[in-house]
TrEMBL record:
Pfam families: UDPGT. This is Glycosyltransferase. Its EC number is 2.4.1.-. Transmembrane segments: none annotated. One of its GO terms (molecular function) is UDP-glucosyltransferase activity. InterPro entries: UDP_glucos_trans (IPR002213), UDP_glycos_trans_CS (IPR035595). The keyword Transport does not apply. Keywords: Glycosyltransferase, Transferase. The keyword Hydrolase does not apply.
């Protein structure tokens, strides 16, 4: 069989093969993009799509997208990387190796069986995919599931870090904005692996971010200027989230979710939505402080805990009360929750998917990062976009990012976010206005003729144009 993209009819659709990393937060945006590309016409180019993944994640794929399933022997029984216990961090290399052993042969088989133009779009952390794509003659696109701001900040710190930072320090290397970070907020493990990821990215034809121009154009341009290897374009093609928001088993139900029905009865902008993502767990003591702080705020809240943890307490309740509604142990329609007229603020861990959903809905945020690049996302929301307020106070940061956040800090943050009648009105109005503007820009970006639609069309057409060239498809 000829290499992918070198045989078959020249007018055949471009077949895009998506390879997400085996973590739910990474899987969702790539699967959503695959759904967008499945059986569509992008500009002058028709596209088809497929996903290469494991049985666990195949069940989460959009129903419209064909899935090539690869058997996966997961270390320690964990099929989702984000579910690895904190005390098993040493198992991460084994997980990456097992993922490559499962997915690489499956990807190669898909590409070699393709009789027509094909290209690969894979998660930035899957450093082996560009090699497999090259061996099969298919161009490769590196897809970042974090924002351009966070990715650029990490690259700036990696490339330009001095011998010893002050604390806090200004992000170096000609960064587009004057932003300060604390050393404890930098993910040292990610920095250690960055050379490997950048070397793989250098083999790609192009780079894509799940973001949009009005949000991060200057940071995408900075990222492009710092890329290793041959010059390549950076495309902003998001927000891409909703298509993979719920499992296949959930999407078939026609009944309106009880959460949304409960929100229907609340006044506009009155509810504080609280969620820390599907995998960011808080300890039992922290859950109690959070519950106490929410009740003391006097604001109606909707608190979603996707996986109930620990023993006892409000965290396991799934009912409405005089204070609000607590939902634990199940998936919730977050994008629809944030878009509901009753929601006026979002207490979040600052995961990029959650950030984008809030931005698209035009909802201001109270930021409470827990790990990875979430601390950098917090700086973006609070200092650059100015649509967020911090939950963790500076004094607590100095005590350590693992320190317990007291109930009083939660109450104060919710008061600042929603307005407590003590001189906050102007600040609240400003954040809400900026959030609404970003929401309009996000929705416009993915609408017909929008910036993200345009970037995606240009990328697809360039990938299709590579079909039949004599030159290496990776350059």
């Amino acid at each position: 069989m000829s290499p992918a993209g070198r045989s078959g009819r020249p007018d055949a659709p471009l077949h895009l093969v998506f390879v997400p990393f085996l973590a739910r937060s990474h899987f969702a945006p790539l699967a959503a993009k695959a759904a967008d590309a499945c059986g569509q016409r992008v500009g002058a180019t028709a596209t088809t799509a497929a996903i290469v993944t494991t049985p666990h994640f195949a069940a989460l794929a959009p129903p419209c997208v064909p899935v090539h399933v690869a058997g996966f022997r997961c270390p320690g029984g964990h099929e989702d990387f984000s579910q690895l216990p904190d005390d098993e961090a040493s198992s991460a290399p084994a997980f990456f190796s097992a993922a490559e052993a499962a997915l690489a042969p499956a990807l190669a088989a898909v590409l070699r069986a393709q009789d027509g133009p094909a290209a690969v779009v894979s998660d930035a952390v899957l450093y082996w995919v560009p090699r497999v794509a090259r061996e099969c003659g298919a161009p490769h696109v590196t897809f970042h599931t974090i924002g351009a701001f966070a990715a650029s900040a990490m690259v700036a710190v990696h490339l330009h870090r001095p011998e010893a930072f002050l604390d806090p320090f200004v992000v170096p290397g000609g960064f587009p904005r004057h932003v300060k970070l604390r050393r404890a907020q930098i993910n040292e493990e990610a920095l250690a692996h960055l050379p490997l990821f950048r070397a793989a990215e250098a083999q790609s034809y192009a780079v894509a971010f799940n973001s949009f121009a009005a949000l991060e154009a200057n940071f995408a341009a900075y990222y492009q200027s710092q890329l290793a290897g041959r010059p390549k374009k950076v495309f902003l093609v998001g927000p891409a989230l909703a298509a993979a928001a719920s499992p296949r088993a959930v999407t078939g139900g026609a009944e309106r979710d009880p959460i949304l029905q409960w929100l229907d009865g609340r006044p506009a902008g009155s509810v504080v939505y609280v969620c820390f993502g599907s995998t960011c767990a808080l300890g039992e003591s922290q859950l109690r402080e959070l519950a106490t702080g929410l009740r003391a705020s006097g604001r109606t809240f909707l608190w979603v805990i996707p996986a109930a943890r620990g023993e006892g307490g409000a965290a396991r309740e799934e009912r409405a009360s005089s204070h609000g509604m607590v939902v634990a142990g199940r998936w919730a329609p977050q994008a629809e929750i944030l878009a509901h007229r009753a929601v006026g603020g979002f207490v979040t861990h600052c995961g990029w998917n959650s950030v984008l959903e809030a931005v698209r809905a035009g909802v201001p945020l109270a930021t409470w990062p827990l790990r990875a690049e979430q601390f950098v996302n917090e700086a973006f929301l609070v200092e650059v976009l100015r649509v967020g307020v911090r939950v963790r106070e500076v004094a607590r940061e100095e005590a350590g990012l693992e320190a317990l956040v007291p109930a009083g800090a939660v109450t104060r943050a919710v008061g600042r976010l929603m307005g407590d009648g003590q001189g906050e009105a102007e600040a609240v109005a400003g954040r809400r206005a900026r959030a609404r503007e970003l929401g309009s820009a996000a929705r416009a970006a993915v609408a017909e003729g929008g910036s993200s639609c345009g970037d995606w069309a240009r990328l697809v057409e360039e990938l299709k144009a590579l079909h039949g060239r004599d030159s290496d498809p990776q350059v």
